[in-house]
Every structure is written in structure tokens, then in C-alpha cells.
Amino acid sequence: MTLPQRDASADAARSGAVAAQESLQDARAVARVLQGDAEAYGELVSRYMRPAFSIAYRIVEQREDAEDVVQDAFMRALERLDTLQRGRPFRPWFFRIVVNHALNLRRGRAVRRTEAVPEEAASTLPTPEVHAERAAVRGALTVALDALPDTQRTVMILAELEGLKSAEIATIMELSPGTVRWHLHQARRALRQSLQALVEDT
């Protein structure tokens, strides 16, 4: 018996419809903010607080720094909201502000690196041996990511760790989609080379 195959085009259509609906909700919230409705900005904050923190945290690698980045980014976005071009989606525009703030902090501050992952994320490891093995993998991945140029590292974070599409990354990074794909290819190749020894050992 042949199992029915998942319809990729249908999934893509549903994903696109959801994205379009979210973009419409954002546009309405932005319009309300510009009309003086302060509560509408709270809707945007609630919607994008978690993904903004995730992006910032992966770039700066420190919880307090990531919190500062997100707070500053929301303040900056509110101050510049009237510069958002009509019809331009809020999400990539705002994520661009988050990425810029995070990269500026990373470049301008000696970032304290005590853990690459929040403490609670490691609390569910079943044994000390597994904990140590996964910690070694995380540490190796962090070192390999840190060795990448900023642009490649950021593209890799947005694509592989945050799941953003090339077109949206292009908007966020102000690059062409082809340039994004090139940076992603280069980053993947560099990571494979950096992690090859670890993979062979395990």
C-alpha cells in the first residue's frame, strides 16, 4: 500500500496565508499606533518579544545583553515607526533593527561568554554523560559560529536556527536573496570544516 505523500505546495500555500494574515494584523496595529493608540504597540511587543529575544540572544550570547538589545530595539522601532513605508511589512523591518542593535553590541562590547545556552535548557538532560556530550557539541558549534564573519554568522542564525526564509533574511539584512544564499552556502561549508573533527570523533 502506498502512503499518501505530503503536499508541499499546499503546506507552502497555508504558510503563505498565515504570513499574509500576520502581516495584515501588523499593518493594522502600526496604523493604530500612528493614530495615537498606545495599546496597539503592546500588541506588536507581545507578538515579537519572544522571536526578537531569540535572535538577539543567539547573536550576543548573553541573556542580559539580549534583553537590552530587545528593549532598545522596541524603543527605536517606536520612535521610527512613522518612517516605515506604507505597505512594507513590520516584521522584517523590526528584525532588522534587532539585528543591527545586536551586532553593534557584539562588536562594541567584550561579550561575557559563560554559557551559550540558557541554564534551564540543560536541566532536562538525562545523564551527566549525555550532558557532557551535548555541552561539547554546543561549545564546538558556538566556537565555529563565532569564527564566521558577522554577515555569514547572522545569516546562518536567521536561516538555520530561527527558520527564516531567504527572502525575509534578504529584507532584514538588506541584501539580495542570491547574496543571502551565497553567504549561507559559505557559512555551512565553513561550519562543516570546523566541526569535521568533532563528527569523526563521535
Q: Tell me, what is the CATH class of the largest domain?
A: Mainly Alpha
Helix tally? 9
CA radius of gyration is 19 Å
Helix content: over 70%
CATH architecture of the largest domain: Orthogonal Bundle
Largest sheet: none
Query: What's the number of structural domains?
Result: 2
Q: Provide the β-strand percentage band.
A: under 5%
CATH topology of the largest domain: Rna Polymerase Sigma Factor, Chain: A
Distance between the termini: 38 Å
Helix/strand-derived category reads mainly alpha
Low-confidence stretches: 110-117, 119-126
Indicate the overall shape: globular
Number of strand segments:
0
Question: Secondary structure elements and their pairing?
Answer:
Layout: H1 8-34, H2 38-60, H3 63-79, H4 90-108, H5 119-122, H6 128-146, H7 150-161, H8 166-173, H9 177-201
What descriptors fit this protein?
mainly alpha; Rna Polymerase Sigma Factor, Chain: A; 2 domains; 9 helices; 0% strand
Report on this model:
The protein has 202 residues and is mainly alpha-helical. The chain has two domains: 96 residues, Orthogonal Bundle (Rna Polymerase Sigma Factor, Chain: A); 80 residues, Winged helix-like DNA-binding domain superfamily/Winged helix DNA-binding domain (Arc Repressor Mutant, subunit A, Orthogonal Bundle). The protein has nine helices and no strands. The protein is globular and about 60 Å long. About 8% of the residues have low confidence.
